[in-house]
Amino acid sequence: MKVLVIGGAGYIGSHVVKEMMKAGHKVTVFDNLSSGLRKNLFAENDFIYGNILIPTDVEAAFSRGFDGFVHLAAFKAVGESMVAPEKYSVNNITGTLNIMNAAVKYNCKMMIFSSTAATFGDPQYLPIDEKHPQIPVNYYGFTKLEIEHFMEWYERLKGLKFAALRYFNAAGYDPDGDIRGLEQKPENLLPRVMEAALGQRQLKIFGTDYDTRDGTCIRDYIHVTDLARAHVMALDYIAKNNKSLKLNLGTEKGTTVKEIIEAARKITGKSIPAEEAPRRAGDPASLYATPKLAKEILGWEPKFSDVDTLVRTTWNAYTNQ
């Protein structure tokens, strides 16, 4: 199939592109390189420099004709979304509507969307499944949930089939080492641990008195290559079954902050000092998902999401720049 990957020069996007290529799809990347990197592009693919906020850019891309597209071009900093909601409204919502309008105009009827665990808000039970109430507690999560609603309406009114893939904590790097462009301004734990290992930052542990096995937060870390494989499988499922789907992508194996840091100390050989700090507002003690439905529908299960692989592949990327 001919596939347009919007945001395909970014951290997750470049891994999705690689898995699409491995599956034999013809990939075109659309990116404005605001956070994506040219070094993440593959020479085999066409590249379109464009902005999702400029409708003519998006229409020019879709006019080339595609069977399906992947949308990974949203802003995703939770804290920033709470102080700059207008920025997230324009990029995440207006930008996505520009994409969807161009898609239906040019008869591209399969959409794979990068949604998020943030649509669920605070967990009412664990592990989180697809039936868990979606009550976002930050504006970023709200924008992603609204896009899920838009997709439902566009399916009903325009026949746009979709997959909403709700990520938990994306981590790791390409095990083959083909993708080494580091995520720009990372906010997640593992990149911060790597930066601390390289002496580039002071690492803080926010909260050590949670009701968990070592007092630190538990999160569901999933390898980015496992996420990328799910995008390919979702596209193939829609093509074969003409059905939309909403899936949680997690491992059901939560890992604590301290466990990540200890694994990093072992693999990097660095001491990685960490300062204990007060809890951050809005951080639940535990957050992890069941991938049962993704396994049932797609046959998907994580292969690279053990802690050692997550840490080792990230360290390899950080030390091979």
> In this structure, how is the largest beta sheet organized?
7 strands, parallel
Q: Class of the largest domain in CATH? A: Alpha Beta
Q: CA-to-CA gap between the ends?
A: 33 Å
Describe the oligomeric state of these chains in a short phrase: single chain
Note the overall shape. Answer: globular
Question: pLDDT below 50 for ≥5 consecutive residues: which ranges?
Answer: none
Structural class: alpha/beta
Element-by-element helix/strand order: EHEEHEHHEHEEHEEEHEEHEEHH
Q: How many strand elements?
A: 14
Q: Report helical residue fraction.
A: 25-40%
Separate helix tally: 10
List keywords for this structure.
321 residues, alpha/beta, Rossmann fold, UDP-galactose 4-epimerase, domain 1, 2 domains, seven-stranded parallel beta sheet, three-stranded mixed beta sheet, 10 helices, 14 strands
Outline of the structure:
With 321 residues, the chain is of the alpha/beta class. It has helices at 11-22, 55-62, 78-83, 85-105, 139-158, 189-197, 224-241, 257-268, 292-298, 307-318; strands at 2-6, 26-31, 46-49, 68-71, 110-116, 161-167, 169-171, 203-206, 218-219, 221-223, 245-249, 255-256, 274-277, 286-287.
